[in-house]
Every structure is written in C-alpha cells, then in structure tokens.
Write a structure and sequence with these properties.
The complex is a heterotetramer of chains A (358), B (335), C (368) and D (328).
Chain B: H1 7-16, H2 33-43, H3 45-62, H4 64-71, H5 112-148, H6 150-165, H7 168-183, H8 192-207, H9 209-223, H10 226-233, H11 238-274, H12 286-293, H13 301-329
Helix pairs in contact in B: 2-13, 3-5, 3-13, 4-5, 5-6, 5-8, 5-9, 5-11, 5-13, 7-8, 9-11, 10-11, 11-12, 11-13, 12-13
Chain C: H1 19-24, E1 29-40, E2 43-55, E3 60-64, H2 71-79, E4 87-95, E5 98-99, H3 105-111, E6 116-119, H4 123-126, H5 133-144, H6 150-163, H7 169-172, H8 182-194, E7 200-204, H9 212-229, E8 232-237, H10 240-246, E9 249-254, E10 257-263, H11 264-269, H12 274-282, H13 326-329, E11 335-336, E12 343-344, H14 350-361
Parallel strand pairs in C: 3-8, 3-9, 6-7, 7-8
Antiparallel strand pairs in C: 1-2, 1-4, 4-5, 9-10, 10-12, 11-12
Chain D: H1 2-28, H2 34-38, H3 45-54, H4 61-74, E1 76-77, E2 85-86, E3 93-94, E4 99-100, H5 101-136, H6 141-155, H7 158-172, H8 188-222, H9 225-232, H10 237-265, H11 269-275, H12 280-290, H13 293-321
Classes of the chains: A alpha/beta (358), B mainly alpha (335), C alpha/beta (368), D mainly alpha (328).
Chain lengths: 358, 335, 368, 328
C-alpha cells in the first residue's frame, strides 16, 4: 500500500471528502548529466512521488537541498517535463499536455517563486506584471484589467495606486506580495508556492505567511507549499510530506508529523531546528555529514548513510512508503520510530562522513 | 556606484533595506529603469559633452551639401594653381588659408576641409548602417540560439566560430573587387553607392558575431530567471516570451554594444580604404585620405594630420559616450 | 547617552560553563560608541551609529538584526576591513586592551587572523576557487608564523582539518573548495579561522547558507571548539533560534543602533523592546497553537540612507503614540532596565514595558 | 582531457575544412584569370589554354579542391612550369611570384611572428599592469590618467599612430632607420630597431584595450568574498592583490589575449602596410591584388589555423588556471 492508497482508504472512510484536485502518481524526474569519461549519468532528482492534494488543502513539501522539492514544484506547473509518472489535475491527466491543452488549466494552476527580486520583470510596471497571466490567456475580466489589478493589489495588502510603479521601487516583502497577486490573477484553484518566504527578513516572513493563510481561507485555495523550514510549514500546512534525495520518506497530517514522526529523518530534522523557546544547545539528534549527492545516492534506503538505526537490510532493500497503524501517516522506513521526538530508540550512531560524501 | 572589496557587503546591507519607507512619499507614477538610466546619463558630464560632440558631427555630416554651399568649394574641385611644381600645396601647413581651412591635397589639389565633411558623411552612414544590420542579425541569431538551444544553438555557435576564424581584412579585400566585377564590367565606372553597399554588406557578414554572443549569453541567463518562468507557467507563447519578457531586458547591453560598434565600423571602413579596397577615390572617406597621405609623410605631414585627428575625435567621442551609456544603464558596472 | 561601562553580564549561573571569566571579568573585546559612516552619492549613511558591547573569552555574543541593521558593518569594523577612504570609523574598539581605531593598518593586519578571525556566510565564495583548501589554511598559518616551514604549516593545516571533523584531512588538504560539500567547506573555513588560535572569532551568519541538519553540526562544532580554545565569539545572525542556542549575551540591532542588550535569558525571556517583541512573536515555532496567526511587525525594515527620525523603529511600533511626539523627535538612549546588564533603548517607561510584555506579548509568538 | 582534446581537435578540423572550402569557392569566383596575370602581353589564346590546362584550371572544381588538399597532406606533382614535385605541405605554386607558396610563407611568417610576439609581450605587460594599478588606485589621478590613456589608445588608428611615429622618429629625429625586417639570427640589433615602431604602435593600441579590460576585471575581483577572506587572514596587501586577486582577475584577460594573439599571427595587415614590412598580412593583400589564388588560399588557411589553435589553447589554459573547469 502506498501513500495514495492511504489517501484512497481515507476517502472511502469519509465520503464527505472531495475528489483530489491534484493526484500525483509515481512522479519522477531524471536529469542526464555528463560526468567524466564514463559518459552519461542520470540524476534521479525526483524518484517516484505519490501524493494527493484536495481542494482547499495545503500540502507542505519539506526537505533539505537536493531533495527534489523544487523540481517537483516545477513539474506540477509543467515548467519541467516529468520523466515518468502522472500528474492529474481536476480529473485530467496533464503529465505531458502541450501548451494548448494546458491553456484552460493554467487559470487553475499557478506558482509563486522564491526570489522576490528575480521573479518580477524589472522592465514592467506592477500593473503589467500582475495583468500578465490575463493578457497571455486573453482573458478580459468584467470591469476591465485595470480594475482587476487594483483589486488584486488590495487583496495582497498593497496600495492599488501603485499600479504604475516598477518592481525596484518596492521592498522584498512588497515584491513577494506582487508575485502573489500575479499568481492570483487567474483565480486559481491550486497554487504551488516555492519557498515563498525564505528570502525575506524575519519580520516580513510572518506578514507573508499570514497573507497566504488569509488567502487560503478566504479564497479556498489549495497549496503545495515547498519549504526547507519545518517551523514555517507547521504554520501553514495541514498535510506535510518530508522528502529526502528525491523520495518522500514520510507523509502525514500536521499533528502526526510534528508530534509523532516515525521516520528517523523527520525526527532529525525536527530536532535540528534551533528553538527560540529553549535556551542552550538544542535537541539530541545529530546527523553526521551532508546530504549525499543525488548523482550517486546510497543503495537501498537513501537515508541509511546518516541514520543511526541503519542495518544490513537498509543497504539492500529500499523501504516502501507504507502507512502505520492504519492511519493517515505513511513512512518509508524499515525501523520506524514511535512516540514523540526525543524518545528515539538507539542512540545516534557516528556515521563516518567519508562514507557519506562518496 | 562602485564598491570596494569590503564595502560591497556593507553597502549591500545598506541598500537591501532600500526604498522601504520612501514609496509612500513619492508620487504615484513610478520611474521605469529606462527613465532612471536617462536621468543618470543626464547627470553625467562626460556623457553630455561627448553626446554634444556626436550631435555636432552628425549635423555636420547631414548638412554637408549646405556646408558646401556656404564654404563655396566642392569635394571634387581641384586647385592645381595653388600647388607648386611638385604638386605640393603652396604656403604653410599644407596650404592652410582663409579659403582652404585645412589646406589642400598634394597632387590633386582638392580642398581637405570639404572632403573631410563628406568623408564624415560617408563614414557615419556606413557605420550606422552596418551597426544596425549587424545588431539585427546578432539579436535574431543570439536570441534563437539562446532561447531555443539544442542543435540550433550548436549550429549557430559553429557558424560564429567559423566567421571568427576567417581573416576579415583579407576576405573583405578579396570579396570587394569580386563583387564589383560581378556587377560591373572590367572598365566600367563603379557608382559610389555600390561601393558603399558592398562595404556595408561585408561588414554585415563579419560584424554580427559579438552581438550574437552577447545576446545569447544574456538570453541564457534570463531564460532561467523566475519572471520568465512565471510567464511560461501562465502559458505564454514564444512571441510573448521573446518580445515581452526577454527583449525588454536585454536592450540595454544591445544599446551599449551598438554604440561601441559604430566607432568600430568607422575604423574598419577607414582600415579597408587604407589597404586600398572599399571605396574608390571618388567617394570622399577618411581611410582613403590617410592612405593617400602616407605617400606624403615627409613632404606634407599636415595632410596626415587633419583626417587623422578628425577620425580620432569622432571615435573618441563615440567611445566616451558608449562608456557613459554603459554606466548609466548598468550603474553597478565597475568604474 | 548612557553607555554600558561594564560588560553586560548574564545572570549568575546563567551559563555555568564559563566560571573563571566571571571572576576576572575583563572583556577581551570592548567596543564603545562605535560609529561607521559611509559617504555615498545618495548622502551620508550611518551604518553603525553608536554601538557598544563587550565579549569575554569563552563567551558568545549574539548580534541579531535584519538586513540593513548594521550588524555586518559592525563586525567588519572590528576587523578593520573597511576601506579607510570610504568609511569613517569613530569610537573605541579595545582588543585585549589595545585600541584598534586609529591604529596603523599594518598593526591591525598583524592582529587579523592571529588575535581575531572571521568566518563568513557563504564558504564557497569566501574561499579562493583556484587554491587548494589546505594551501589556504596553511597560508593563514604562515602569515603569522613567518618562521614556520612549509611542512610545519601543512601539518598544522591537516591537524586543523581533522580537528573540525573533516575525515581524511591529509587527502582533503589537496582538494579545491568546489570538491567539498557545503558543510565541509564551512568546516574548512572554521579551520582556517582557528588555525592561529585566535582569542576572538567573529561568525557572520555562518549557517545561513547551510541545511538545517548541517547547521546543527556546525553550531555544535563551534561550541566544542570554544570550549577547547576558550575564545570569545561574536555570532551575527538574523535567526533568533541560533541565538538562543549558542549565545550568552545578545545585542539586538535596528537601523544601525543597538535597541536591546543583555543576557540571552533577559533578551529572549524578558524582552523589553517592542522590536524584540515583534521579532519573537513573528517567528514560526514548533510548539504552541499552529493555527494561531503569527504576529508580524508591520511595515518594512528601514533604509539606512533614509532612516526615520527619532526612534528608528517608531513607524513600525505599535506603542509609538504613547509618547506623543517623542518617538518621532528624540532618539531613545540605551538605558539600564531594572535588571543588571539589561539595556533597552525605548521611550516607554520601564514599568509600562514590563506590563505590556506580560499582558500583550507573552501569550503570543514564541512564548505561547 | 584526452577525450576533450580529440573532440576539440575534431571540431577544429571541421572549422578549418569549412574555411578552406569557403575560401576556395570565394576565390574561384574571383573573375580575374590567374593565367592572364602570368603572361601580360604576348600571349596567344592557344598558349593561354595550354597553361590553363597545365595548372588544372580546366578540371572540375571538386577535383581542383581535392588536388589542393592532397598536396597539403601528402605533397603532389605539379607541372614542370611549377617547379615539378612539391613536398607536403604543398600549398601550390604561385604564378605571380614564380615560387612555391610554401617558400613564400616560410619567408614571411617569421616577419609576422617577429612583429606580433614582442608586441604581444609588450602590450600584455603594459596593459595588464596599467589596468591593475588603476584598479588598485581607483579614483586617484593615477587612475584617471590610465583611463585617459586607454580611452585615447582605443580611439586611435594604427596607421595614424604609425604615421606620427614615422614622422617623428624616422624622418625628423632620424633616431631610427626606416622600418624593415632583418632576421633576429642575422643581426638582433637591426631586427629590433627595424621593428620597434611596429611593436610600439601595436602595443600602444592593444594595451589600451587590455588596461580597460583588466581594470574592470580587477575591480570585480576585488569585490569578491575571497579577497575579503584573504584580508581577514591578515595577509598584507601585496599578497592579497598579487596572489589572490590577480590570479582570478587575469583569467579572462588570458582568454582574450590568446584569441587576439592568434588573430594577429594570421597577419597584421595594417601594421605591415603602414610600416612597409612584408609579412603574412601584406603578402595576403598583395596576393589578393594580383589574383594569386594559391597564395591567398595559403594565407587565409594559415590565419584560420592560428585562430582555431588559439581557441583550443585558450581552453586548455583556462582549465590549467581554474581547477573548477573540467575538460570534457
């Protein structure tokens, strides 16, 4: 049984839940990379993802660099062509849909980018930037484009009179709001938000998170929220998928992931976050080494080189993402943990870094 | 603004918070990057001085027939009576008088000043035409190569390499008479318009590579920028991507490279005329004059001096202006 | 203006790990009324405007602030890395009893890398791409040990690489920075900074570019090394979490000025400045009610070129009106609160601040 | 590395092949009949036809090209009028100069080398030095002077500078002899004094460009983080600049220098014409004027070889300087 089956099982249980808006199955992206004399090599940046997003639901994709979360986001809005697997949106298969086939769906599927400086065309006025999706899709909103843009500016908390300003006249947080307004221009059903707050100052982060929460609530938007910061995700997402080296290692509802994480990696991540409420050295789990390069991931369980519970089976057999306790939480681990963070079995093992960096 | 090694960080820190409170107080109409560049240019004294110099040159060139009328001497008039028995101009500094401001050519006895004015006209016309054509070719090829990539990129790159591997002067030298003879007979009088056309054509064939490389690089850099991806994610077509998203962001470097290409073509035209191709002696041009003048280095140095200084002043003004333009368009460029 | 004449000290027993420092109490670095001014085309920028602090050996000072707060400028001023032609530095910087402001460049240079060292945010760009990691570390050693031979320097560099947790240091010595992973590069950077056993280490956002699991390793490593080498550390960061984890004392900067200064316990548990409150309540946390809204600070960080008058924070402060025009017209002095070593620059009365924090702030944000 | 070289040499060969084909086509279209040039007045049509046949000019174009290329690789037999057998690399026989083209090239190539190599050394030292100083002393009068120098140099014409130098040093002051080429092995002093004006004028113009380039590069490098790191280590400024900044700043300069030198080796037409020195460039110009097809082909090909080889060399050099560059 896979994560999707979990979702399906859940669906069978409670008929009240709607059909998934986004259904992703076995989604993979492999990049060819030339290396040395051996010739071509495949980087499995994303390797067989399964997840669903229901209307109005927020799914967080969390992980460290190289885990494939950004690649996944780009595939969902079809900026990248998936290598295999399928993406179904609103009941239609869009995995390999062309520009024309996607056109009616574009309105429903939008993206917010990370870098508030790179994501706005410096030569366009704010009005033009926000109206771009309307213009590109030939949509004339009732009341005119200008009225719609003003309305959007107001929605994201900017002065509608700033219509004719240029991006360089705004601060980082304000620019991110402009990017959000652009994504909302077509009244989408699902927004992929790729690290929307990680480039912002702390005091501004909270403003933008609150804005996104308000929008999600008021407009009933579904989100795929990509982030490396588990604390941010916790404040925004109802469901969370933790990724490691191109795979989902754990997926579950917020309460499960944060209070009862089962995968050692999820626990390590949670434990590593410096916590303002605690003075002095943080949590006791320390992973050794860096994330291995996706060019040459470890065999079996990809996390095993940094895992304190790794045994022989971890090197030979890749653990499947299976639900535990018949619940909505699925974990890809041979030796899942239970209980709250800090109650791990077995102490952190010193994994030599050399092994890791290979 | 230029930054020293350490202040780079410090000032980046200062600037990053920029504009925060300010927009509230400014007028509601924003200033586009283009307007800002224009203001910077206006504030730059070098830019203004060199700009005025260029305008003067341009007006002189355009008004050449008027100047001829006022000056009262044509570019092909000969004043043999003012030359001595060896064909050298009488008087000081190559025959400079109130009537012939820059003196006379030795041998033919034509007026140097009015020939310089017409030479300016020829040179500027050729240079501008060549710069426009090469910029167009360069932008089209560079954009295609950069944006579409793949085999097209490889082919365009290879053609660029090939073009760069051809020795320009030799090929141009050989090509020009070939073309002339193809269209005119062995002894026919070649029209000066044709000569000019051939020259522009030769420049067009060889001159596009740098613009193409520049544009290609810029497009590749922009292609991955998030605002371009945003347009793609909204379903924008090729036209929108190229003309609305990409080109508005690369016109600045294109403009700079254009402004620096014009003086290069002026020099190249002169160089070609200098090695004896390009324009016939009928058409007044800088290179032609210098080429002829070399024979009189010892006997009439003033003849080298006037065209040499004029061409230097022209190219210098263009280079100054091009530099200032670069600074205005890209204030972070190091200067 | 009030200046902290004595080093702000934490509550006794705050950090039992550094006992003897409390006794002799003479800070290794003491900065007093530091001002750094840049003359730019857009006018004079007061990047640092009267900042004072002190750090003892074996203790860590966290300097917190957002972009444009002047925290990096401060650290570069301590190292004397500003270009004298562009930056005007006044005030006092005493390092081990020596005043650095006004000291000839050559003498400051001798101190750099030997008595004080720095690690930077992005180790990839901070290491020279063309030289091997080992060579760069050995070079740092040989600058200050001119009599050391090549072999000795190499041995020292290899030792340091091993000490910071890089496996097979002898082999890694001959690799270039691009052959290292992000975490390894930062370790190498630390090895380079510590190769001369400096008494002061300034770490400018050392973990911002790293993954969170690697950040934890690096912070642990720094703590270990501090215990071993007994150096004073200044940790510059925007992340309150990092501060809470490593700092003994905290300096909060806003618009080039210090707004709150005290022990980590005082600043993070009993903060008295509305800006610190704002930072704490806007940080997303792993605890408490995930569905409650965060409480952001309104507005945007100020531009140093165009700093608001009076209290630089007043346009964003919810309580600015309580003092009539004072917030707009008068720069609040950094003054002692009721607690020893705790300084705050705010026009609100001390009792009111304590009350406000208890009634309005403590239940939101991190403290909830 | 080996793989890179093979690939790179393959593409270089392809480029050279294309150059040779293009040149061949272009000059085949050259309307002047080379034979007419050979016998100016007293040629009757039959004799012309016979010579043309002997030269292979009546063969199909492809056969002519193939013959030419074969000559380069293996050598070939030419008619008795063309000096009999011609060893590889056979570049053909010039009807104009009545000698094997390879002999002409062997005679003029050292001339161009003698002009370019010392000039290149001079312009690199001067240009890079000036650029570095002006970057390090940015904003001072020294910097402004260097900027003025480079702007002036970039706007001057070689023939103008050459002419002025000739007027001053040769005709007026009579400090130097009229420029000419003497082999360095025969008389080094004469070699230098005959070419020094060419070096100086070339170096002046090029160093202006290099001063601008290296100044910009140096300024950019100085704002790099690793320069700050070097200072934070306590390195003295000469070491920071000399060892850390210079090495990074010089890399793009080296690239461009390689390409420029490669281009110049193919013939410094203007310089040679200005100073009346018979090098590769002047030979090419003369060949074009007299319709000397084999000589044109040879000069164009040699110029292309230099450019293409310079490209390969620059790539290798880049990899040698920057360890991040991997050749593949």
């Amino acid at each position: 049984m896979s994560a999707s089956q979990v979702d399906e099982a859940r669906e069978a249980g409670s008929t009240a839940e709607a059909e998934p808006l986004l259904r992703v199955r076995g989604l993979s992206k492999h990049f060819p990379v030339r290396s040395g004399l051996r010739g071509r090599h495949l980087v499995r940046a994303v390797d067989g993802l399964d997840f669903d997003v229901r209307p109005g639901q927020t799914l967080g994709l969390v992980g460290e660099s190289g885990c494939g979360k950004t690649t996944t986001g780009r595939m969902l809005v079809r900026l990248l062509e998936p290598t295999s697997g399928s993406i179904e949106f609103d009941g239609r298969d869009i995995t390999h849909a062309g520009r024309r086939e996607l056109r009616p769906l574009r309105q429903d599927l939008q993206i917010i980018f990370q870098d508030p400086y790179a994501s706005l065309n410096p030569r366009h006025t704010v009005g033009r930037i926000i109206a771009m999706p309307l213009q590109v899709n030939g949509i004339k909103p009732p009341g005119g484009v200008k009225a719609r843009v003003r309305e959007l500016l107001e929605t994201v908390g900017l002065n509608p009179e700033h219509y004719n300003r240029y991006p360089h006249e705004f601060s980082g947080g304000q620019r991110q709001r402009i990017g959000i307004a652009r994504a909302l221009a077509l009244r989408p059903k699902l927004v992929v938000a790729d690290e929307p707050v990680s480039a912002l100052d702390v005091s501004i982060q909270a403003q933008v998170i609150n804005l996104l929460r308000d929008l999600q609530r008021d407009l009933g938007l579904a989100f795929v929220f990509i982030a490396h910061d588990l604390a941010v995700v916790r404040h925004f997402c109802q469901r969370v998928a933790v990724m490691y080296l191109g795979k989902v290692v754990e997926i579950g509802d917020r309460a499960d992931i944060y209070e009862r994480p089962q995968h050692p990696y999820t626990r390590a991540l949670l434990s590593a976050i410096p916590d303002v409420t605690k003075l002095g050295p943080a949590g006791r789990i320390r992973l050794a080494g860096d994330v291995p390069t996706p060019l040459d991931p470890p065999s079996g369980c990809r996390f095993r080189t940094r895992c304190w519970k790794a045994r022989d089976i971890c090197a030979t057999e890749e653990p499947a993402l299976v639900p535990r306790d018949g619940g909505r939480q699925a974990t890809a681990c041979h030796f899942p943990e239970s209980g709250p963070v800090g109650a791990e079995t077995g102490g952190p093992v010193d994994v030599t870094v050399e092994e890791v960096s290979k | 603004m230029s930054l020293s090694p350490v202040e780079g960080v410090a000032l980046a820190e200062i600037e990053s918070g920029g504009d925060a409170g300010a927009p509230e107080r400014r007028d509601v109409l924003g200033r586009s990057p283009g307007q800002l560049a224009w203001r910077r240019l206006r504030a730059d004294r070098t830019a203004m001085v060199s700009g005025v110099m260029l305008i003067v040159f341009l007006v002189l060139a355009l008004a050449a027939p008027l100047i001829e009328m006022a000056y009262g001497i044509g570019p092909r008039e000969q004043f043999q009576n003012l030359l001595d028995g060896f064909g050298m101009p009488l008087g000081y500094a190559g025959g400079v008088t109130g009537e012939h401001w820059f003196g006379l050519e030795p041998g033919l006895g034509r007026d140097i000043f009015i020939r310089l004015i017409y030479g300016l006209r020829t040179s500027l016309f050729i240079a501008f035409a060549a710069a426009v054509i090469t910029a167009t070719i360069g932008v089209v090829l560079g954009t295609l190569a950069g944006y579409l990539g793949g085999w097209l990129d490889a082919v365009i790159n290879w053609i660029t390499d090939l073009t760069l591997a051809m020795p320009f002067l030799v090929i141009a030298l050989a090509l020009t008479p070939t073309l002339v003879l193809r269209f005119y007979g062995e002894r026919e009088q070649v029209s000066s318009a044709f000569g000019v056309g051939v020259l522009i054509g030769v420049f067009a064939i060889f001159g596009w590579t740098s613009t193409a490389r520049l544009v290609r690089g810029q497009v590749i850099a922009l292609r991955e920028r998030e605002f371009v991806e945003a347009a793609r994610a909204s379903g924008a077509g090729l036209g929108h991507m190229l003309f609305r998203q990409l080109l508005p962001n690369i016109w600045a470097p294109i403009l700079v490279s254009f402004s620096l290409a014009v003086p290069q073509f002026i020099t190249s035209e002169a160089a070609l005329s200098f090695i004896g191709v390009g324009l016939s002696d009928e058409t007044p041009s800088f290179g032609r004059m210098i080429y002829r003048s070399l024979d009189y280095l010892q006997t009439d140095p003033a003849y080298v001096f006037f065209p040499g200084i004029t061409i230097f002043a022209l190219v210098f003004a263009f280079n100054l202006f091009g530099d200032a333009l670069r600074d205005a368009l890209d204030p972070k460029s190091s200067r | 203006m009030d200046r902290p004449e004595s080093a702000p000290s934490g509550q006794p027993g705050d950090r039992p790990s550094v006992p003897e420092q409390r006794a002799n109490g003479d800070p290794y670095l003491r900065v007093r009324d530091l001002r750094v001014r840049f003359d730019t085309t857009d006018g004079v920028v007061r990047a640092v405007d009267g900042v004072s602090f002190a750090v003892e050996r074996g203790r860590t000072l966290g300097i917190v602030g957002e972009s444009g707060s002047g925290k990096s400028v401060t650290s570069l001023a301590v190292l004397g890395l500003h270009d004298a032609r562009r930056a005007t530095i006044t005030g006092e910087i005493f390092l081990g009893g020596r005043q650095l402001v006004g000291l000839p460049e050559e003498e400051v240079r001798q101190l750099r890398g030997r008595d004080m060292a720095m690690i930077f945010q992005d180790p990839l760009s901070a290491l020279h791409p063309y030289y091997t990691v080992g060579k760069q570390i050995a070079e740092a050693y040989r600058v200050h040990h001119p009599r050391a031979g090549k072999r000795e320097a190499r041995q020292r560099a290899v030792d340091m690489l091993g000490r910071v947790g890089i496996p097979q240091p002898a082999r890694r010595f001959d690799q270039h920075p691009h052959e290292f992973s992000g975490g390894m590069r930062q370790r190498a950077m630390i090895a380079m900074a510590l190769v001369n056993d400096p008494d002061l280490l300034i770490a400018d956002e050392p973990t911002t570019a790293l993954d969170v699991t690697v950040q934890a390793q690096i912070l642990d490593l720094l703590a270990d090394l501090q215990a071993e080498f007994h150096s004073a550390i200044i940790m510059i960061t925007h992340d309150l979490g990092v501060v809470s984890q490593v700092a003994d004392d905290v300096l909060v900067m806003y618009g080039g000025r210090a707004v709150e200064h005290g022990s980590v316990e005082q600043v993070l548990r009993r903060p008295q400045h509305p800006y610190t409150w704002g930072l704490l309540s806007s940080v997303p946390s792993l605890h408490g009610d995930a569905d409650a809204d965060l409480v952001p600070i309104r507005g945007n960080p100020p531009s140093l070129i165009n700093l608001p008058s009076g209290c630089a924070f007043h346009p964003r402060c919810r309580y600015a009106d309580r003092n009539g025009d004072r917030s707009r017209t008068e720069v609040p002095a950094l003054s002692p609160t009721g607690e020893a070593g705790h300084l705050v620059a705010c026009h609100l009365a001390a009792e009111e601040r304590v009350r406000l924090y208890r009634e309005e702030i403590a239940h939101v944000g991190v403290a909830r | 590395m080996a793989r890179f070289l093979i690939k790179r040499l393959f593409s270089a060969t392809l480029t050279l092949f294309a150059v040779s084909v293009l040149t061949f086509l272009m000059f085949f279209a050259l309307p002047r009949d080379p034979v007419t040039g050979m016998c100016p007045k007293n040629c009757n049509p039959e004799r012309l036809e016979r010579v043309r046949d002997e030269l292979g000019l009546n063969d199909p174009l492809v056969a002519q090209y193939a013959g030419y290329m074969k000559g380069i690789v293996t050598g070939r037999d030419l008619g008795s009028a063309q000096g009999g057998h011609c060893d590889a690399p056979c570049l053909g026989w010039s009807y104009v100069t009545n000698e094997a083209v390879s002999d002409t090239i062997a005679r003029v190539l050292p001339v161009t080398l003698s002009i370019v190599i010392p000039a290149a050394v001079l312009w690199l030292l001067l240009g890079v030095g000036l650029g570095m100083i002006s970057a390090l002393r940015r904003g001072t009068w020294l910097d402004r002077l260097a900027i003025g120098f480079s702007l002036t140099g970039a706007s001057l014409q070689l023939y103008f500078v050459g002419a002025v130098l000739l007027i001053v040093f040769v005709y007026n002051l009579r400090l130097l002899p009229v420029p000419s080429y003497t082999s360095i092995f025969d008389n080094p002093v004469k070699w230098a004094s005959g070419l020094v004006l060419a070096w100086v004028s070339l170096a002046f113009l090029f160093s202006a460009i290099y001063a601008r380039l290296s100044r910009a590069q140096m300024l950019e490098t100085l704002s790099e983080d690793f320069v700050r790191t070097a200072r934070a280590k306590g390195l003295a400024k000469p070491k920071v600049y000399g060892r850390h900044a210079l090495r990074a700043a010089i890399t793009p300069v080296v690239t461009i220098a390689g390409l420029d030198v490669g281009g110049a080796l193919g013939g410094t037409v203007i310089t040679e014409t200005t100073f009346g020195i018979q090098g590769l460039g002047r030979t090419a110009v003369d060949a074009v004027r007299s319709g000397d097809l084999p000589t044109i082909m040879a000069t164009v090909l040699i110029a292309a070889v230099f450019v293409v080889l310079a490209n390969v060399l620059v790539d290798l050099l880049y990899a040698a300087i920057d360890p991040r560059v991997r050749l593949r």
